[in-house]
Amino acid sequence: MSALQRRTFLASTAAGLGLSGLLQSLGPLSAADVTIDRGIARFSSDIEPLVRFLEETPQQSIIEATAKRVKTGLSYRELLAALLLAGVRNVEPRPSVGFKFHAVLVVNSAHLASISGPDEDRWLPIFWAIDNFKSSQARDVREGNWTLPAVDESALPAANQAEKTLRTALDRWDESASDAAITSLVRHSGANRVFEVLSGYAARDFRSIGHKVIYLSNAFRTLQTIGWEYAEPVMRSLVYAMLNHNGEPNPSTSDLEADRPGRINHIAAQNISASLAGGTIDDVATRDLVRTLHDCSPIEASELVAELIEKNIAVQSIWNGLFAAAGELLMRQRGIVSLHSVTTSNAIHHAFSAAKDEQTRKVLLLQNASFLPMFRDAAAGRGALNETHIDELAATQPPNHSPTVAEVFETMGKSRKEASLQMYQLLSAGGNPQDVVDHARRLVFLKGNDSHDYKFSSAALEDYRVLSPPWRNRFLAASTYQLCSPAETTRPLVTRIQSAIG
User: Fold this and answer.
1) Of 380, 408, 435, at which residue does a domain stop?
2) What region does 294 belong to: left with phi over 0, alpha with psi -120 to 50, or beta?
3) Which of 1, 49, 100, 370 could be stapled to 261 by a disulfide with Cβ–Cβ 3.0 to 4.6 Å?
């Protein structure tokens, strides 16, 4: 049992949403309703009762019970906040920042799906995520019933020492010191400062196939919606997740494969003299990068990206290549590993875009390049990869009859490869990508049964917008290998949710 799990002191986070409005929607509370075990992290009084409601209501009745509260005034924002905090308190991001912990990771993806969907479907993703949380909560109970402990208030560093202490603790992979330091930093610094520090560490190692940086980006994006006042427990959980090293020796004193590219790229980034600003858009350079990533080593990948930066190739062209390579891996082997090459690239791109420090941004770019061959090798360990090249989609001749969006998705149920060709033909002929996105989201609402359905679709349907036109259509075409198809079974939970919310 770790030091983080042993701490037993009380704590509370800052007050957030208006208490009176929330209480009106939730009704009266008894003394038992607000009693919580000592030693367990407790939230502010405005949100604690709602978190307890999500924790304690049985899965077989949680949808209907939540719907009643929504109908009597519970807001979407309050529900989103409570869902994130319930997951953070009740689901351990160990032994891997994935599996059952997807209940937390998927919250932002469900939120993105909600705000992007049609009005009649807006509640479906968040209610699905609530049911998913209950499943993960039950699994966590079976695996030991971990709960986020209260803060050890006596261990917190002074405000003016919090950032330095945190960096030192993260460098040493010191769990207890990191927990205390991140708590102090959150209490005394704003979101931007905290993000700037953590973005330098979340992608430093390849453990958990990208879920550490996925958690970083998703956590901050959700907090932008629900409010930074809820950040303390989320950031403690995030740091706890980031420091997981699978029971291996302490990475700070070891030379382990998962850490090696990060150490090399940190030094390489310092040696890049060129700025990331400006540069020339170069599709030839993008294609060369995609072709290199097809079979190169992690270090060869980051060395090429460093070379492109020094040659004044625009960062846009580099990201075109990274996203295209992630999409190509989907085409080479559909499945859990390749889809994470897309969701991880989405998370690193978000961190890259939000970070201000030039050195951090360079490291993130090099790390994304190194991660892609590592994803490829991990996928190859599960089975042979197809020798497919995403840039060869351009060589396909359009048919006499350009397929409709609905026809492309129907084809997905029969042949993902044929559907990708049809999708490329449709978009190349002037098809509206927004129609594709809308159709894909609707199918996720109806057919999605796994956290990855929401995580992948939210990432892919967001990322295609950041690609340059020559690569945008190829990336969307590659996404057909993983998006939901109409041939899949409509989930019974959808009918239950629709019935509950009316």
Assistant:
1) 380
2) alpha
3) 370
How many CB atoms within 10 Å of residue 424? 23
Residue 268 shares a structural domain with residue 242? no
| One domain, residues 3 and 90 | yes
Band (182; pLDDT cuts 50, 70, 90)? very high
Same domain, yes or no: 61 and 131: yes
User: Among all chains, which residue has been given the structure tokens 């971990």?
Assistant: 146
Residue 491 lies in a domain: no
CB atoms < 10 A from the CB of 494, how many? 18
**Which residues does 479 contact at the CB level (< 8 Å), separation at least 6?**
327, 330, 342, 440, 460, 461, 464
- Residues linked to residue 313 through DSSP beta bridges, in sequence order: 280
Same-domain status, 302 and 236: no
Measured distance CA(424)–CA(411) in Å, rounded: 13
Q: Are 396 and 361 part of one and the same domain?
A: no
Cβ atoms 149, 4 nearer than 8 A: yes
* Phi, psi for residue 209 in degrees, rounded to 5: 35, 55
* Alpha carbon distance 88, 99 (integer Å): 14
What 3-state DSSP class applies to 62?
Answer: helix
Q: What is the DSSP letter of 464?
A: G
Which tokens go with 204? Answer: 């430093």
In the chain, the number of structural domains is 3
Are 502 and 462 a contacting pair, CB within 8 Å? no
* Span 377-392, pLDDT tens digits: 999 999 999 999 999 9
pLDDT at 65 over 60: yes
Calculated CA dihedral for residues 379, 384, 387, 389, nearest 10 degrees: -20
Residues 354 and 455 in one domain: no
**Alpha carbons within 13 A on the beta-carbon side of 435:** 13
Domain that holds residue 450: 392-479
CA 433-498-86 angle, to 5 degrees, is 90
Q: Which of 224, 315, 306 is nearest to 261 (CA)?
A: 306
Average pLDDT, integer, range 195-213 = 97
Q: Quote helix, strand, coil % in the chain, to nearest 5.
A: 70, 0, 30
